[in-house]
């Protein structure tokens, strides 16, 4: 495994729409391993492809004992709402409140291309929404929640 450089806000690559992952090979597995290590090293709870300069629809999310690799993720259902603070490894030093669904159902593929889904709530749901936004070039502060 190897640490990847995290792309910082201001780089145009963070604002592009990422393309679908179509090849599920060892290179993809290695990338996901690197992303997880990079996220842990940076003390984050999620990291998306564009944040390591990869214009593909993939992300990792890790909250406490929960870890998931999301390839081609799509939010297919949501329930409720939660407002809370977010930050981003690509936007150091900035935090703001964002309204997110309280619960989400995400359909995605694993690193081998198998189709699966997860239901998540609270922080995991928030992290999934934040990372999936990255795949569409959206940063958390675009959605700043103002009372
Ligand atoms: Co982020």
List the helices and strands and how they pair.
Elements: H1 26-41, E1 46-48, E2 58-63, E3 66-79, E4 82-86, E5 96-100, E6 103-109, E7 115-121, H2 122-134
Antiparallel strand pairs: 1-2, 2-3, 3-6, 4-5, 6-7
Question: What's this entry about, in short?
Answer:
With 147 residues, the protein is of the alpha+beta class. It is 20% helix and 32% strand. The protein is built from two helices and seven strands, in the order αβββββββα.
Structural summary, described in words:
It is a single chain. This protein is α+β, with helices and mostly antiparallel strands and 147 residues long. Helix content is 20%, strand content 32%. It has two helices and seven strands; from the N terminus they run H-E-E-E-E-E-E-E-H. It has a five-stranded antiparallel beta sheet with strand order 1-2-3-6-7, sandwiched between helices. A hairpin with a 2-residue loop joins strand 2 (58-63) and strand 3. It is globular. The protein binds cobalt (II) ion. The site of cobalt (II) ion has 5 residues, from helix 2.
Radius of gyration, CA atoms, in whole angstroms? 14 Å
CATH architecture: Alpha-Beta Complex
Distance between the termini: 43 Å
Approximate helicity band? 10-25%
The CATH H-level homologous superfamily: Peptide deformylase
Instruction: Quickly count the domains.
Output: 1
Overall SS class? alpha+beta
- Gross morphology is globular
Strand content: 25-35%
Order of helices and strands: HEEEEEEEH
**How many β-strand runs?**
7
Annotated CATH topology: Peptide Deformylase
* Biggest pleated sheet: 5 strands, antiparallel
> Low-confidence segments, ≥5 residues, pLDDT <50?
none
């Amino acid at each position: 495994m190897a640490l990847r450089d995290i792309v910082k806000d201001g780089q145009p690559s963070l604002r592009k729409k990422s393309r679908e992952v179509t090849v599920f090979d060892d290179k993809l597995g290695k990338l996901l391993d690197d992303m997880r290590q990079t996220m842990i090293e940076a003390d984050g709870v999620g990291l998306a492809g564009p944040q390591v300069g990869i214009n593909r629809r993939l992300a990792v999310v890790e909250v406490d004992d929960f870890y998931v690799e999301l390839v081609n993720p799509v939010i297919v259902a949501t329930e409720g709402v939660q407002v809370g603070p977010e930050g981003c490894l690509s936007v150091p030093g900035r935090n703001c409140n964002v309204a997110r669904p309280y619960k989400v159902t995400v359909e995605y593929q694993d690193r081998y291309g198998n189709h699966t889904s997860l239901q998540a709530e609270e922080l995991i749901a928030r992290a999934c929404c934040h990372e999936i936004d990255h795949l569409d070039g959206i940063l958390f502060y675009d959605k700043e929640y103002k009372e």
